[in-house]
Design brief:
It contains 30 helices and 7 strands. The chain is mainly alpha-helical. It is flat.
Amino acid sequence: MDTKSKARRKSRFGYQAKFYGVILMSLISCHNCICQYFPRPAPIKSNQQTALQHSLKESIPGTERVDIFLDLSNSVLHIPTRTRADLERAMKYARDAGELGSSLGYKDGFTRSQLAIANIFTLRNDFRNAEAILAELEDSAKIDLLLNLSFKYRQRPGEAKEQDLKMAADYAEHAATLSASLHFREKEIMAQRILASIHADLRNSGAEMELINVLKQYQLIGYNRLHYVYEELAFYHYNMGNPDKALYYSQETIKSMLATGDTADAADFYAIHSMICQNNDEYQTSLDFSYKAINSFRAFPGQFPVSQILALVTGTLRKMHRYDEALRFMKVAKKEFPAQDVIDEIAYLRATASIYRDMKQFGMAEKYLIQCFNLQKKNELLNYAGYLAIGQLYVEWGQFARAKPYVYKGSKMPLIGISSAGKRHLSYMLFLIDSATGDYLSAIRRKNEFNTLEDYRLRQVKEKEVQKLNVQFETEKKVAQLRIKDQNIQFLEKSAKLQQTNLRQEKMIRNFTIAAIIMLLIITVQLYRQYRQKQKSTMVITDINKIISQKNRSITQKNEALEHLVAEKEWLLKEVHHRVKNNLHTVICLLESQAAYLKNDALQAIEDSQHRIYAMSLIHQKLYQTDISTIDMNTYLPQFVQYLDDSFGASDRIRIHSDIGSIKLEAIHAGPVALIINEAVTNSIKYAFPDKRKGNIFITLTESRDYEVELIIADNGIGMDPKIINTELNSLGIHLIRGLGKEIGAQVEFGNEGGTTITVRFRHAAFVEAGQPLLKAEKEAFH
């Protein structure tokens, strides 16, 4: 790989930070996408256990003791560093409550104990026993457990994510149906919210409207804990690549939480806001909210594992290049919050590996990632992120052969939760791996995928800028209209006052007709007042006209800004053509490198491909150097024909004569025309003049009456074998010429008198299908 290629590869690794942010986000969105939670009792702080134990000793066997058992189970579940032993202790309290409630005939206590037992089963990943409890519950309690199971299936990690999401959807639909039949409106909406959240995980286009509809339904019934729905909307827009909307809904989440005082899940909300701020490059804000999440976790641990919150802190410190601080933080945090399960161990290993990877200590990073990978595999928790993490490390390390099996395996797994930025970077990694391992056709395909995604991203950025400018323009326009309307209202009010004054004048005239002198004086005074009112009205109208003039100037400035954006977009399109030309030259260089190791037919195929690629590259060069829509064939074809003449080095015995009219063709026509000339001239130079004979090749491109454009390539050589022209023999050149002619709707004729003559006629209006006609023609030719 040459120096320029290495430089390009290095620049592309600017995506790597984003990519690993996407991997972390995908893990969280798949495993812990926590919006409105399932119905559950209010959480009890773990520091209440001593008081509850005292109350238990003082109580007598009765309903009060059942409630104390349930409260003890609840408080144990909210220990920040909860262990498996704690889960067993919570299970014992819940079962004690169930046995005592059953013996006392305390139905409510028994029902709540069964829900607590089922919840602990799900926390132990024992869904079968949790589902078995459904048969023991009725009505509201059964709905509660259905919602619990739906929520837990949605967040459960592992390879069978699609199957888990289907189970979650089935339970949510069951809960919605049962809630509707029993008129539990709030629980019915909660089930609809879970379904909308599952659709958001699967990137369904209507998921956003479903969530907004859930928000409206909650508002209609007066349910004020809307932060759970806002949180889902923030996640949805984060995954869809809308950072502004994600930040807005995350802020609304925190506002709603603080307004209602429902801070039991504050750790989750702060963690999500921290991730969104990190994605928006607001690193200090991200750190501040991560620390808030950790402090909240100490009071009430949420659904986010604390290990993932700690990984957020280290991830932000890495982005700020504070690697030593990140390692120190992880060392201290692991002591306060030791890993309680395999999820925590995986998160700690991945976070530590990421720090060493960013420090370019690849050996240390590999050590931790291999441990992480084996742990995931052992516990059936492997998904695409686990494979891509190791593959990314080896790509950065330059060990592409070792990276290939991991990246290929990860790319073929369900990419649930991965953003468009992650997909772009995955395509680029596959391009680097295929290029380095010699799979050039696959590398070209991967590069095209990357370019398509990158172009789509650039278009989105530009469209968002234009939309933002349009919204700003429309807003200012509406504000101006409202101001003018207010001024008109004020003017009408003044006119109404003037009319009232006139009425008073008439009354005064009617009442004081006898006093003519006084009447005359009053009339004179009133006329003067009218004169003054007209002066004021004139001043108001003048002020309105000034405001309108100012707004017109503002509109003119906005129009100029829009025209600037259009020009900038046209420049960007030229830049795209420039990059395509550079990429095609890169492919030519790759083919030249490969040609050094090939001989005979393979070498000939490589050289033929170089000529075709140069034809397309020259087209893109002309597009960005001149007009971006058409190509002047009078300047393009002579340069291309000169290139062919120089490539074969036969100018001493074969002369190429060209008569190119001043014709401009669209790019979709110019490309096939150039490739037809390439095939015809190449065949003439190779086969028309054997034994080093001298000869001539003639190329003409003119406009005719019957057909707007006519292309003729002729030589005075030995001519072509009629069998090749009139039969379906495997001649790549003829197949390619006919295929290219078909792409532009042309008539192609072959002549064999006094040499070979190829005539191609087509109309300007015969537009080809949008896409890549070159690739279609070559595909037909090779088959």
